[in-house]
Amino acid sequence: MTGGRYLLVVLSLGALVLLRLTSTRLSAQDEASVQRAALLTLFREREHARQLVFWHDATHALPAWQLLREAGLLLDAPPPDTAALALPIPVHLESLATMEQQFRASPDGWETWFKRFPASSGIIALTRPALLPVSADGLPRASVVVARTCGEHCHSAWRVTLQRATDGQWRTRAVEPLTLPRD
């Protein structure tokens, strides 16, 4: 084995050992804190929503999530633990079965839906947070993808990057809109 190859093997093994020793998951409390901070940034601070409606259907994907999958982002969006999120605004859960029932009963579909959930931003799904490399100042960082469906042809998605501040609170550092294919 040449010197260059040997060095590459040693460095690779060292990186693997370091990865095994470094936690790649956030605690359940930190996961909820990251999700909460991202949701409040997007929907309370930016859109002034007075309630949030989460997609709560393990069998069917939120339409915006399906568009993300078609764009090649194969992300998992399990229904969030809304109690752990402890959001300061009302939270509702919505499933495909409930929506189908309402849309069959009302020809106005989304207009009727928004009458049920006024001042909401549509239906939301989000990923569990992914731990990112620490910041330049050594603070933990994480990202979460949030998607929203707000009408037949109304879909949005964002990647929100957060960082834990020295006081232990997670704060949004960046919001990046994700491009969705047209449906």
Task: Describe, in plain words, how this protein is organized in 3D.
With 183 residues, this protein is an alpha/beta fold. It has one domain (25-177). It has six helices and seven strands; from the N terminus they run ααβααβααβββββ. The chain has helices at residues 3-21, 28-46, 63-70, 82-85, 96-105, 110-116; strands at residues 52-55, 91-94, 123-126, 130-132, 141-151, 154-164, 170-177. Strands 1, 2, 3, 4, 5, 6 and 7 form a seven-stranded mixed beta sheet that branches. Residues 4-23 have low confidence and may be disordered.
Q: TL;DR?
A:
By secondary structure, the protein is of the alpha/beta class. The protein has helices at 3-21, 28-46, 63-70, 82-85, 96-105, 110-116; strands at 52-55, 91-94, 123-126, 130-132, 141-151, 154-164, 170-177.
Comma- or semicolon-separated keywords:
37% helix, 7 strands, seven-stranded mixed sheet, single chain, 183 residues, alpha/beta, globular
Topology (SSEs and partners):
Blueprint: H1 3-21, H2 28-46, E1 52-55, H3 63-70, H4 82-85, E2 91-94, H5 96-105, H6 110-116, E3 123-126, E4 130-132, E5 141-151, E6 154-164, E7 170-177
Parallel strand pairs: 1-2, 1-3
Antiparallel strand pairs: 3-5, 4-5, 5-6, 6-7
List how many beta strands DSSP finds.
Answer: 7
The rounded Rg comes to: 20 Å
Unreliable spans: 4-23
Write down the domain tally: 1
Could you spell the SSE succession in H and E letters? HHEHHEHHEEEEE
**Intertermini distance:** 54 Å
The helical percent reads 25-40%
* Mean pLDDT rating: 86
Please, how many helices? Answer: 6
Structural class: alpha/beta
Overall body shape: globular
Largest sheet: 7 strands, mixed
Strand content: 15-25%
